[in-house]
Specification:
The structure is a homodimer.
Chain A lengths: L11 E5 L4 H12 L3 E6 L10 H5 L3 E5 L8 H5 L4 E4 L15 H20 L3 E7 L23 H20 L2 E7 L1 E3 L7 H11 L3 E4 L6 E2 L1 E3 H14 L4 E6 L5 E2 H11 L6 E4 L18 H6 L7 H14 L5
Parallel strand pairs in A: 1-2, 1-4, 2-3, 4-5, 5-6, 6-11, 7-10, 8-13
Antiparallel strand pairs in A: 9-12
Helix pairs in contact in A: 1-7, 4-5, 6-8, 8-10
Amino acid sequence: MTGRTDSVAGRRIFVTGGAGFIGSALVDRLVAGGAHVTVYDTLSLGRREFLAGAIATGRCTLIEADLLDAGRIPPAIAGHDAAFHLAANSDISLGRAETDRDLRQGTVATYNVLDAMRQQGIVDVVLASTSAVYGEHVPQPTREDAGPLLPISLYGASKLASEALVSAFAHNFGLRGWIFRFANVVGGRATHGAVFDFIRKLRHTPGELPVLGDGRQSKPYLFVDDCVDGMLFGWRHATEPMNVFNLAVDGATSVADIAGIVRAEMGLADARVTFSGGARGWPGDVSQVRLDPSKLAALGWRARRTSHDAIRDGVRAALRDPSFV
Amino acid sequence: MTGRTDSVAGRRIFVTGGAGFIGSALVDRLVAGGAHVTVYDTLSLGRREFLAGAIATGRCTLIEADLLDAGRIPPAIAGHDAAFHLAANSDISLGRAETDRDLRQGTVATYNVLDAMRQQGIVDVVLASTSAVYGEHVPQPTREDAGPLLPISLYGASKLASEALVSAFAHNFGLRGWIFRFANVVGGRATHGAVFDFIRKLRHTPGELPVLGDGRQSKPYLFVDDCVDGMLFGWRHATEPMNVFNLAVDGATSVADIAGIVRAEMGLADARVTFSGGARGWPGDVSQVRLDPSKLAALGWRARRTSHDAIRDGVRAALRDPSFV
């Protein structure tokens, strides 16, 4: 599938959140394919070092700025061929303590990007969305046409709001939208999530691994390279004015299994796992997620790794990563 | 069904947008049932005279303020038993000219109401939503579990965002939500819409009625009394933490039929109708809407009027209304 990246050669791509975990993997891939990339990032979750390789090629520029500083976006985005909008508060549990965080960093930031695109006549927008838009009232495995969409986290609410804005801007102002509802994404530069937490905890206290919930929460996991690959594939091959895809794998991995994989990979199989109990890890957590990936599969794309393999490779990448904190 | 209003006797109800078309009809009904009502309204679309009767009873207080002035809401909402959130930019076509209007007056205003409820420990929130959340990619007649939800207007996008916020606040902070996706609502105090436009145009130029689109756009219409009745019924009889209902009728009325009814009721049957052409009236307009009202019907509620009867009674009420501009 590497041939596809040739298609971005010479194209100018604007990436919000491009210094973050998924964003920087996307930027590496775009730059490797010959694109010219502008990253717009606050560096609050993202990190400059994640872009070191891309910047060294001379084809990646970092603008350290906030999407809430709306006036800065139009001049920054002008002249690009497409925008990938990945910036967001990516840590779902934070939204509960600071209730306007997702509204500002999610919904309002997305509006600002879209309105800047409208002003500058930029057509293609790719939105990183999430399975959290589905909430808990939909059939599983969940298809893209499932409803009602009643997210249980403020993060999920802001992503559904962002999807709706992409749709309305596409219809009214001639934009074309690609919405990817991500499974849980794992990989080397992750800044949160179960794999990240478990590694941190075991490095701090190698004999014990306290786990939120009863361990039976289970979700599909996607390796970050597959996530980037799927986005680029969908952007190239789906041609409606609005395109909505689950970006996921069949099946799921339980939190207890993740704990087992992390312990095994760290050589700490004897660490004692304790569960805090309860069906979900925290109040905005959807404990059982199954996503139907067949819509994107019908276009010809499948993730290379299963959910379990994604977890294993995610743990290995994190353990190898010198920047892991 | 009038017996149901007894249930609000003595209850303290907060109504945003309560001086507007639907809001003031709700307030009249609540006050008639013995409730104590606080209206929070900017009076930008709403009008003080719509509340004259309610205020004269001594059981309705008007706070003239903006929901974007977030600090004013918590003291205003404190001590109420429920909030009905109807305030919004209700004129869909305006959102296209001023692209942040629906974001501010819809999404952000809804967040401010919900966060004030959280701060003050108020549990019940009833949201006026719209069939516009469905967009154009859903089966018809449309059920509440239809998807994907890809609104084509910024108004629809802001209502979908508001629904998502209600859901997330309900889940995280113990609120209970009732979301009603309205059909097109008609009645005496309407401030926009096809009936309103046609009467205005014919009063200005009695011999000619120019109509946007090809006249074949058709949607279900609900009389405002039925709308208020359905909301109060659903609030009392639906008991999930989150309740989503179409508030609608079977069938639909075409714009050409509306033009005919308005001409007949005004005694201007000879006025020449001209169509601007095209399938939709304006870019954010969903031209064909059919809503399935059976979910609320299963609880025991049906609108008293058909779509056609609602249009006829809406025209008559508007023609009788001394405040019609």
